[in-house]
Amino acid sequence: MTKKAVALISGGLDSMLAAKVVMEQGVHVEGLNFYTGFCVEGHTHAIRRKDRAKEKRNNALWVAEQLGIPLHIIDVTSEYKDVVLNPKHGYGQHLNPCLDCKIFMVNKALAWGFMDEHGFDFIVTGEVIGQRPKSQRKETMPIVARESGADDLLLRPLCAKNLPPTRPEREGWVDREALFDFHGRNRKPQMALAEAFGLTDYAQPAGGCCFLTDERYAAKLADLWEARGERDYELDDIMLLKVGRHIRPAPHYKLIVGREEGENRFLEGYRKRFLHLRTSRVPGPLALVDGTPARDDIGLAAQVLARYSQGRDEAEVEVSVHHPDGVVELVNVAPLAPAELPAAWHV
Amino acid sequence: MSDRGTGERLDARGLLCPLPVIRTQDRVRTLRPGTLLDVIATDPGVLHDIPAWCRVHGHRVLFSRREGEDIRIRVEVCET
Ligand code: SF4
Fold this sequence. Notes:
The complex is a heterodimer. By secondary structure, chain A is α/β, with parallel strands linked by helices. Chain A is 33% helix and 16% strand.
């Protein structure tokens, strides 16, 4: 009987190859992709105009199409919070809890794939020993297998030959000899394999598959936690961290200023929930104010906004202040001179 | 409830991709083959992602069009 494998598909090359290697052995493969809220895919490209020329595709779906397999996308945004906030194995270089993240995802794949209605036999990931300094090492491989509960039903086709045989190999569901022994950060073997499979167009994420590996993003998330006095977030918070300039003149409030039209339009979607500012007589960005600004703070916020408007060289700029209750007031302010905006305010 | 020709509607406005795709996927799972599902969304990413999702799962997109601020995509649920 044909065996069934569920493959974690991130949208990058490794997971694509891992799935393909197993498919080549006659295994029925379906893809699983998790949406954590921090993923670099999709809308992040759509927001910024400068990114529009780039592909807007969802890489995981695109990979599934190339492979000709169904892809199931699972929304894990709320459960994933615990992974980000309390990673048992700590963080990588920034706020990326990669090891806990892998354990979480393999565990989810196990729960999903082994449900009666799905009936999968094993799990496939694109992990490669030594690929990532913290989360993909020889010592972490058994940790992921054990702590996820998948144990020897977790197959890593790209580096299987460097690991003890798993059940799919022992039982002959796959041929171990036709698996690989990739290791380290060298990407050449993967590229050669992609070529051998005729796969020419694939995403090569530089740091990792999510925003938590991004230094600037991680700094903004840390700032959010510090300002709020607690480590927590809502989906909207982490979406907004992907967009605009974040300027914090004081601990109790910050401005999120659109950098271009696409971002302004994105921020528009949040305007009913935030105090927001815009210039009323000259073109300029939209700014949301997050936090609890006092009356006196609003004038300074307006000055900051004016500095990013086309009235930046004027003596005075009119700014409309929109309160969440619908009240709108107009204020005239002098745009802040660049020297008056301390670098430290930029989160 | 969902015989052929009777329309189902999914409001995914305000959601960013891939959430509209995930909502579509979860709704389609509950529908019988032949059902038509209209997904209404605002993120232009759906114009790419929902047809891609339908292709890998064997469902059909009958049309997608802009309706003012909204985007409407009509999906025909197929036997998979
Ligand atoms: S880069 Fe992000 S999504 Fe990828 S393993 Fe690390 S934490 Fe998880």
